[in-house]
From TrEMBL:
Belongs to the MurB family. GO terms for biological process: cell division; cell wall organization; peptidoglycan biosynthetic process; regulation of cell shape. It comes from Butyricicoccus porcorum. Residues 32-199 form the FAD-binding PCMH-type domain. This is UDP-N-acetylenolpyruvoylglucosamine reductase. One of its GO terms (molecular function) is FAD binding. The gene is murB. Pfam families: FAD_binding_4, MurB_C.
Length: 302
């Protein structure tokens, strides 16, 4: 398969990293997941677009992955090509009060760069373990901010047409854990431009440090997880419902509802995808039975 894929590339091979039979547990924050047939990491926009074309030309299924912080990969792995848009595709540039960045850049890196430049607006992103691409896909947010607050435009590659397009402002259709990218899975985000405001570097850092301390205090950061497991139901908090259902500490295999924050399912060691899915199903059933509320997963299952 790898040779067929390589023959379809329209860029130098050294612009992509190719890893056959790559365990996805190495590329997800849950540390769970069987092997991908072929994991591809592009190092340029040309390589990213070329990899998509090559996969389609070869008739191979294509899965796009960012930093793997909001996904759960099946124990059997992922068939076809996994396009991993990560640290090899993470250039950024600060111009005045705007930052333009490729979508593989980590949100923590973006936040720190903004702080050093004396720009406010990305403080919320400092502790989110995802990439800019993932943030665009799901309108990532925390505390008093969200991706929608700062993104003014983005560029994407349409895998269906092979053309590059641009979204501006409301074109992104950002909502709660939603965006145009989520409703158009064939559109692969390439870069984004963010509008920030001038601020005091010390005050920005203090705000980021406060958010980080609150995360350490409330979240089980010492265990692998995918962050909040379920979306916030309207009028409720998922973690509170799960706690009130008496499910804190509930365990299936190596997976557990965190005893520190019931909104997190953690990998205590050796958890499988099957463990996590069984645990999630039980939590959903109990919360529905006890409170009549249907919890919707926030974690994407691949």
């Amino acid at each position: 398969m790898i040779e067929v894929f390589k023959r379809g590339l329209e860029c130098p091979v050294d612009e992509v990293m190719l890893c056959p039979n790559e365990p996805m547990s190495r590329h997800t924050s849950f540390r769970i997941g069987g092997p991908a047939d072929l994991l591809v990491s592009p190092k340029s926009e040309r390589a990213l677009c070329s990899a998509v074309k090559a996969a389609r030309a070869a008739g191979l299924p294509l899965t796009v992955l960012g930093n793997g912080s909001n996904v759960l990969v099946h124990d059997e792995g992922i068939r076809g090509v996994v396009l991993c848009i990560g640290s090899d595709y993470a250039a950024l540039q600060v111009e005045g009060t705007r930052i333009t960045a490729q979508t593989g850049v980590l949100l923590s890196v973006l936040s720190n760069e903004a702080q050093r430049a004396g720009l406010s607006g990305l403080e919320f992103a400092g502790g989110i373990p995802g990439s800019l691409g993932g943030a665009l896909f799901m309108n990532a947010g925390a505390y008093d901010g969200q991706t929608a607050d700062v993104v003014v435009s983005s560029r994407y590659y349409d895998a269906q047409t092979g053309k590059i397009g641009t979204l501006i402002g409301t074109d992104h259709a950002f909502g709660y854990r939603a965006s145009t990218y989520k409703s158009h899975p064939d559109w692969i985000a390439l870069s984004a431009e963010m509008q920030l405001v001038e601020g005091d570097t010390a005050a920005i850092r203090a705000k980021m440090d406060d958010f980080a301390a609150r995360r350490r205090d409330k979240q089980p950061l010492n265990y692998p997880s995918a962050g909040s497991t379920f979306k916030r139901p309207e009028g409720y908090f998922a973690g509170k419902l799960i706690q009130d259902a008496g499910l804190m500490g509930y365990t299936v295999g190596g997976a557990q509802v965190s005893e520190k924050h019931a909104g997190f399912v953690i990998n205590r060691g050796g958890a499988t995808c099957a463990d996590v899915l069984a645990l999630m199903e039980h939590v959903q059933d109990e919360v529905l039975r006890q409170f009549g509320v249907q919890l919707e997963p926030e974690v994407r299952v691949l």
